[in-house]
Amino acid sequence: MYDWLNALPKAELHLHLEGSLEPELLFALAERNKIALPWNDVEALRSAYAFNNLQEFLDLYYQGADVLRTEQDFYDLTWAYLQRCKAQNVIHTEPFYDPQTHTDRGIPFEVALNGIATALKDGREQLGVESGLILSFLRHLSEDEAQKTLDQALPYRDAFFAVGLDSSEMGHPPSKFQRVFDRARGEGFLTVAHAGEEGPPEYIWEALDLLKISRIDHGVRASEDPRLMQRIIDEQIPLTVCPLSNTKLCVFDHMGQHNILDMLEQGVKVTVNSDDPAYFGGYVTENFMALHEHLGMTQEQAQRLAQNSLDARLFKA
Ligand code: ADE
Ligand code: ZN
Predict the structure, then answer these.
(1) Which H or E run contains 121?
(2) Residues with CB under 6 A from ligand 1
(3) Is Metal-binding set as a keyword in this record (predicted)?
(4) Which domains are seen in the chain, by residue range?
């Protein structure tokens, strides 16, 4: 089954580049940049990857991102991810990156973006992996800071096609970012947002009605609200679901309780994605495989999930 799933042509629509930083590369970059780490070795770091919720993960994720300093670092990070795409027949990817994670550490805006954009271009030309970048705002920071980030990004508008919203969901509803999303749409960008990962269905309504998103990132808590479910089925609004992430962050206690296949059978346009694969135990194929092992996903369901991912692409080359 693994090889069959691996060979399925698919798109990845929910992937944080900073979350694809494998411990081996993290250590290599720390050495290259002469940064002291609080872990003795790769195994010690990996054993720290045990989380009770989103915030515990985010604290480690932002700490890990501190080894990314130069354009070459961001290139190497992105290139390593694109090679995984190639190996898993991910023919199209729409990754996120969080500029504020880097600018807040004093890394100039263009350093991260140039490294990422150059690797994505090489990925298209040398690996045949199509891609479009999503610039994601950190929702635990203010709207004003998001506006400043958009100001910094506009001179590089050709490097990305959409804006997103990520980081700590609870207490930071989509409504907090309505004006910056209005402005981004006015500048011609599509919008997506994390909603209904830990947050309630109301946050999904807000993301749809106020941020006018084209796709919901996670969205698994939509199943708690029948009226919302009807809307996302009627309008075929895609959900970028991340099964391994949801179990690692205790959104579901066990993969056997995940609702992705129930949603699929109800007609929701759900897709399978890896979110932060270096931290959650695998890339897209491993996520498909977990659904097969714990939920009995059939080949026919896998084909529909993979087709959904291709249908839900927003970036047109
Ligand atoms: N940033 C990286 N991964 C994330 C997730 N799963 N939810 C919110 N923000 C994130
Ligand atoms: Zn995410």
Answers:
(1) helix 109-122
(2) 16, 19, 54, 61, 166-167, 194, 197, 245, 275-276
(3) yes
(4) 2-311 (3.20.20.140)
